[in-house]
Amino acid sequence: MLPTERISYSPITERPRLTLPNGARMAVWVIVNVEEWDAKLPMPRTVLTPPAGGSPSPDIPNWAWHEYGNRVGFWRMLKIFDEFRIPGVLAINGSALSAYPAIVEAAKARRWEFMGHGFTQRNMQKVENEREDIRRTADVIEAATGRRPRGWLGPGLTETWETPDLLKQEGYEYVADWVLDDQPVWLKTATAPIVNIPYTQECNDVAMMLIQHHKASEYYYRAIDQFEQIYDDAGDSARVMALVVHPYIMGAPHRTRYFRRIFEVVRQKSDVAFMTGEQILDWYLTTGPKAP
Amino acid sequence: MSGSPPMIPRERCEYSAIVDRPPLKLPGGARMVVWSIVNLEVWDISKPMARQVLPAPTGVPLLPDVPNWSWHEYGMRVGVWRFFDLYKRLAIAPTLSINARVCEDYPRVAQQARDAGWEFMGHAYEQGPIHKETDQKAMIQRSMQVIEKFTGKRPVGWLGPGLTQTFDTPEFLAEAGVKYIGDWVYDDEPTVIRTASGPLVTLPYTVELNDIPMMLVQHHESDHLLKRTIDSFDRLYAESKDRPKIMSIAIHPYISGQPFRIKYLEAIYDYVNKHQGVVHWNGEQILDWFEGQAGKAGSSHERNGAAKNCRHQSADRGRRILEE
Description:
Helix content of chain B: 40-55%
CATH superfamily of chain A: Glycoside hydrolase/deacetylase
Number of domains of chain B: 1
CATH topology of chain A: TIM Barrel
CATH superfamily of chain B: Glycoside hydrolase/deacetylase
Oligomer: heterodimer
Radius of gyration of chain B: 20 Å
Number of strands of chain A: 9
CATH class of chain A: Alpha Beta
Largest sheet of chain A: 5 strands, parallel
Largest sheet of chain B: 5 strands, parallel
């Protein structure tokens, strides 16, 4: 299905008001992306291109740069989640569950939500059997946590024309690849509709640090600008803000402090609800418009 | 134009130094014009996206590109409504550079702009380089017709998608009834260029005070839009003591309509509006003023070489602008 067949255009100003529980004005969800990069393949992102260019294999420097995130960076960021009592959402490659069991255990101990994020970190359009990839990812998450994931984020947000159909058929209840709104929306699929929850490519350390090459503090300033505007907008109807981090990027020592400072500011507002994706989903299923 | 090769830019307009022209004059004590242009586009999901905020892992671009399609779609669902609020509060009716297909795919947005009195400027049928159009002439005619049908008024202005033109484009535009274009960012003042179908006016659009180069190409911090615009404004405002200046600002809802950027756009107007003698005009208002000026100038002395040569093009419009 074309995107425009899955969802009709709708201006945000003309929908029934959404109201969050306990007088909250807006919701914030924080997604940590944990990936496993296969050393035998080209690296999904690179911090340093090889002398004279090209993409030599193995690419040890960039593989190691990413691995640092799971060995060191994740644990640095975890302290911030604990300090500010942020319920985390782990968007995790299926293969990363067995590669990084300590991260899985830390997330389980804190009752974080596990979200499917591709079995491996590659474009979904290059995955040989997409349905199998989606199902296998749910299987390993269930094996590790006892629960099948309810949410899905494509690696790099990539989708084929069928992805939402397959996700719904495989039991997922929401997807985050569609960054087209400040509120959850319904997407039609070949069977029943699926919810999309607002994710972000812009308040996302991949875009800001690896593509746009901003200095570390931009993550903080952009997040606060985003927060203040959405907080203001949400006076009319509840809105959702997403904040996305990768341990190998914001978990680097020179960047982590800017991630922490965001919560020093946002936590001062008592009417901002920190939620997981599935909490936002359940709220929307209860109080939002019925599935089309 | 049949048979003759298309003109290159230098044949359309001779070089002219701004210091060698008599100053134009703005009415009513104004010294500077601010021209705001909002760009609305349709990104067809079956094609590669016009811009990407996030290239796919390992950089391999494949279709469909849902992440970047939905990033642009956010501008239409959410971002543009921040623009509508801003311009309503300021009582400014900007120019809307609009892919004609927006009138078909997003009538709600186009209606809002029409009802708020924004000027509709042709901006191709949908977003993509004009070089790739199989029938450019027909696309231009179609774009003008779709907008005319939607608003009841044929647009007088045109901006190529990404400012793109082929050597033939000015002829096609003049034939379609376009009076001014924004693609030639080569001056602080309007100029006249010649086409085989009569003259076209160029208005000083901008590829620098424009959120695409600043945010998507040069990757500046959000507040850079404000800083750069203030720097431009300060300089142009100082120069406008001696001759009127026009400053344009070009924005897109999927970029400047993002929550973390909108306040810098709002702050631009707070700053600019503290200054005396600044008027907010749309493209058609600037065109009308310039035509009046050119008419006056034409009766006493030539404004520039292009104008002189354009007089010999026998198109009706050329006579009206330049020889009355």
